[in-house]
Amino acid sequence: MSVLLIAEHNNKEVRPFTYNAITAASQINEDLHILVLGHQADDVAKSLSEAPNVKKVIHVDNEIYENYIAENYTAAIIKHAESYSHIVSSANTFGKNLMPRIAALLDTSQVSDIIKVISEDTFLRPIYAGNAFATVKSNDKKKCVTIRPTSFDPADKSGGSAEITKSDPAEASSSTKFLKKEEVKSDRPELGTARIVISGGRGMQNGENFKLISDIADKLNAAIGASRAAVDAGYITNDHQVGQTGKVVVPDLYIAVGISGAIQHLAGMKESKVIVAINKDGEAPIFSVADYGLEADLFEALPQFLSELNKLNTIQK
Amino acid sequence: MKILVAVKRVIDYNVQIRVKEDGSGVVTDNVKMSTNPPDDNAIEEAVKIKEAGKAKEIVAITIGEEKAQETVRKALAVGADRGIHVKVDNVIEPLAVSKILKKIVEKENPDLVFMGKQAIDDDCNQTGQMLAALLNWPQATFASKIEVKDNALEVTREIDEGLETIEVNVPAIVTCDLRLNEPRYASLPNIMKAKKKPIEQLNASDLGVDINPRIEQIKVEEPPKRKAGIKVASVEELVQKLKNEAKVI
Fold it and tell me: How far is it, in rounded angstroms, from Cα A213 to Cα A257?
C-alpha cells in the first residue's frame, strides 16, 4: 500500500521541512502521495507535484483549511486514510499537534519523531531527550508516523510531474476557532534549516545583549537560537528555543554562548556537525559535547569574535 | 467548572539516564523520579483558575505502578482536591493511556482536561491530542497562555513560527507548555494536608479497555558518542580552527 504525507505550507509556499519528510516517507514506500489541505493553495499543490519522489498530489481547497486547525485537518485526512498503509508528517509543532488526533481515530499507536527508517514497520527514534535510541516495530495495520525533519535530507524539488487530483473538504469543527498568529518575521535563515546557528543562554543576562549575537549572526548568515532559560527569562521569543521541548537543529556549525548545557538543551543541538561553546565556567556540561571550547567571558569574547571574522577575506555563506 | 489534570511519573529531568546493557530499556532502579515537568504546569494552571474563582474542583489523575501515586500526592499538595490512581503494571502506550483517560472523563465529567504537552521519558507528545480525538473534543496544544471565558478558552499556543491564538469551546483538552506559568512549591502544611485528601485506586484491567502494546520495542541503545573536543586558548585560535580545520566558516 501507499504512503500519505500531509504537506505543511502557508497556502503560498511549501514549508521546507515537508521536503525532508518526503525523503523519509519515500524510504518507507516509494508510492508516495501528498495531501495538500489549504485555502487557495494551488501553488503549493503545483510545487509538490514537481518533486520527483511524489507520485500523486491530492488537493483539497477550502477556507476551513487556511490555518492548521487540527480538528478540521483530521476530518479531511481520515476520509483519505482508507487507501494508505502509512500516514506521515513532520515531527514539528504542525505534525505533533495533528498526527496523534488522526492516529487515535484510526486506533493506531503512533510512532513519533523517527530519525531512521529501518523497514516499512520498523523505525529508530530518540527517547529521553536523545540520550537513548529505541528501535521500534509497529504492529498496527495502519501506521501513523512523524518524522524528525533534520534527520533526513530534503528531497529534490523539481523534475517531476505528478498528477494533481482535487478532492472535497470534510466537515468543519464548530468548537475551535482560529483567532490570530503572531509570526516573527526575519531576514535570517530559518532556525531549523540554517547552516550555522548561534545561540545565547542565561549568560546573556538580558535581551539587549542578544545584539552581540545578532551582529555575529549577520556576519555568518546564521540563525539565532536560545536556551530555554533565555526564553523563559524573556530575553528572546519562543520560536528561537533549541532543545527537547523546542526545536531540534543539526547545522554544520552550532555556537553556544553563555549556555551551560542542560540535558534538555543538548537534546536539541548535539547532533550538530561542529559545536563551539563559549562559557566562562570551565566545568559547564556544554564543553562535554563541544568540538571547540573557549573558556571566556562572553562580553569580551563576542566582540573579539566579530572583529576576527571581519579580518577574514572570505566567509562561507 | 471541574478540571481533570493528568500527571505522569518519570525519571527526574536532571538525571543522566543509563541504557541497560541488555538493550531492553533504561535503568530505572534507584533512580530519582519526579512529576513530568510540564504536568506541574498543568496542575499549577488548574489551581490558578480555581483560585480565580472559575473552577470548583480539581481532580488529579495518574496511570502507572504503585509508586506513581506520589505524583498525585504532589498534585494534591499544591492544590488539587482529590486524586485518582489507575494501576497498570507495565509501561503502556499513549493510545492506551488516552483510552483509560476517556473512561475516567466519562465517569467524572470534567469541563477541562489539562496535561503536559509531552512526557520527557518517551518524548511522544501524543496523549492529549489522542484523548481529544477519542472524546471528539477540541484541543489546544502547547499552551503558553490560557484565558477562561464564558464556556470557552482563549489559548495562546507556542508554534514553530511564533505564537498562535485559538478559541476552543468547553469541554476541551489543553496540553501545557513549560512557559504557561511558574509551578509553585508545596508548603509543608499543605503536604501534610494532602496526606488526608482522598485518592481513589482503580485497576486498568477493570476499565474494559485494550491496553496491550501495539509497538514492539526491539532494542534500546546508547546514541553514538561525540568524539572529545579541545579547548582553545583565544578567540583568534577559535576562528582559525573554524576556518582552517573544521572548514565551516
Answer: 8
Report whether A182 contacts A216 (CB < 8 A).
no
pLDDT tens-digit series, residues B154-208: 999 999 989 999 999 999 999 999 999 999 999 999 999 999 999 999 999 999 9
> Which residues of B fall within a CB distance of 8 Å from A140?
214-215
Does the domain at A2-166 match CATH 3.40.720.10? Answer given as: no
Query: Going by CATH, does the domain composed of A196-311 fall within 3.40.50.300?
Result: no
List of domains in chain B: 2-245 (3.40.50.620)
Residues from chain A that touch B142, judged by Cβ atoms under 8 A, are: 93, 96-97
Q: Is the pLDDT of residue B86 over 90?
A: yes
Kind and range of the H or E run holding A100: helix A93-105
Cα–Cα distance, A207 to A198 (Å, whole number): 15
Place of cell 540535558: A263
> How deeply is A311 buried, as exposed, middle or buried, from its count of CB atoms within 10 A (0-12, 13-18, 19+)?
exposed
Residue A34's nearest CA partner among A14, A60, A62, A4 is A4
Domain assignments of chain A as residue spans, ordered by start: 2-166, 196-311
Q: Which of B164, B172, B217 sits opposite A134 (nearest CB)?
A: B217
ipTM of the complex as predicted: 0.95
pLDDT tops 70 at residue A317: no
- pLDDT tens by residue, A240-292: 999 998 899 999 999 999 999 999 999 999 999 999 999 999 999 999 999 99
Please give the pLDDT value at position A1.
83
* Nearest in space to B154 (alpha carbons), one of A239, A70, A179: A179
- A74 to B126: CB separation less than 8 angstroms, yes or no: no
Average per-residue pLDDT for chain A: 96
| Interchain CB contact of B17 with A (< 8 Å) | yes
